[in-house]
Design brief:
single chain, alpha/beta, Rossmann fold, seven-stranded mixed β-sheet, two-stranded antiparallel ribbon, 8 helices, 5-formyltetrahydrofolate cyclo-ligase activity, NagB/RpiA_transferase-like, 5-formyltetrahydrofolate cyclo-ligase, nucleotide-binding, metal ion binding
Amino acid sequence: MFSHSRASASGLINRAKEAVTLITQPRTLGSPPLFTSRPANERLASQSYRSFATMNRNDDPIEALFQQKRSLRSRIRKELRNMDPVRRSEEDAAIQSIVVNAPWFKYSKSVCAYISSPALQEVDTTRIVSEILSKPANEGDVPNRKKLYVPRVEDRNSNMRMLRISSVDDLIVNSMNILEPALSDSDGKQHEDVMEAREPVDLFILPGLAFDRCGRRLGRSGGYYDLFLKKYQELTKERKWKEPLRVALSYSIQIVEEGAIAVTSNDVSVDALVSPAGVIPISPAAWERSMG
């Protein structure tokens, strides 16, 4: 996700020190413990934190931060590979059921959601996507269908777009064997880019490798989502729109203890997590909308 050279140590280390400071200043509301981690996760968190603390004392702080991320990614990927298929299926069903029945999902008119990839062992979104696309355009005189935007990777420089689709037929398989929207539909009409839409997005449904209850999210090292979310935050400020709710979907083994996920100023936190145990609201917006 990131690269650096000791030749540019001065500038990088200064940025790293600022980033490391953020690790000890999480955004949290002291929410009730709606989810209890498994003992394995507790061991994972403590091992990662001790490893990071040791490196931070003895070596380049920016390298220590990235090493903590690499170590946690490696461990969570292994946990996901070894996850029992039956348990995975049960958790997929539970998570999606929670989402489609949540008030913040039902009342969202415009949604950005990822198309799940079995190869990446992501929480399944098939039912969520189907729920959005299968709704009739109108019920009586009331517009009912949600707008759905899904990600399309543009290049290797962490650039990603969110394009609107109206059917799964608008999706194609890319070079990484992941479904993403084509640039245009079968009639040659360009799919709408969410950054050019006239109305704001209400909800982002996000993937990730690991999460904690303070809203920290560990991605897969590409930086695509963090960069896109930063750009969309800037757009909402320019247009004076309400910020969308950022909700991450997480298997139970992906939720780790506070201190396990290193963050930098480039990382964007989430407002809520959905695990098989239920919704974990984090930000004030999530608490407000969870009561709706």
